Amino acid sequence: MEEEVEIGKELLTGLLTRMGMEASVEGFLREGSLHLEVKGDPEGILIGRHGRTLDSLQMLINRMVNKQLKSPLKVLIDINDYRKRREETLQRMALRLGEKAKRARHAVTAGPFNAHERRIIHLALKEDPFLETESLGEGEVKMMTIIPKRREEGKDRLF
Fold it and tell me: Which structural domain range is residue 28 located in?
């Protein structure tokens, strides 16, 4: 198992060096996935707008690592705890937009979001009995709609 971690760290460190970035890379295996954490990148160049550059970097390293392994392994990259901060931001946004949808009594649309971000929003609002969520569009990046549920006969619903 240490082999996968070393391969991932070596490939990511090599790529960052070639890009002229000074950053350290730590790696570990958790739940069948290789996690690589980058510390450095003070300008956020590797993260990009809404993490799009980070997603691309992760896809590239994922391909590079799996080309050298016998069995496939999911590779997850985080830079300066960006993914954790982004998850918290998305959860707060989902709750805020959910309240807005309930107050206005009509659907609220936000996005676009990648699959991972949409999942965070769906899960943040899953327990609210007065709301449902829906993904809209085609492809990898889609919009999200937060919909207040209509009152059904005999049920305690919003309206």
Answer: 2-80
Amino acid found at 83: R
Same domain, 23 and 45: yes
Q: For 4, left (φ over 0), alpha (ψ -120 to 50), or beta?
A: alpha
- Tell me the pTM: 0.77
Residues 6+ apart with CB under 8 A from 106: 148
Question: Residue 159 has what pLDDT?
Answer: 52
Q: Can you state the angle between helices 82-104 and 115-125, rounded to 10 degrees? A: 50
Q: In this structure, is residue 41 part of a structural domain?
A: yes
Structural domain contains residue 29: yes
β-strand partners of 84: none
Residues 68/72/78/79 CA torsion (nearest 10 deg): 10
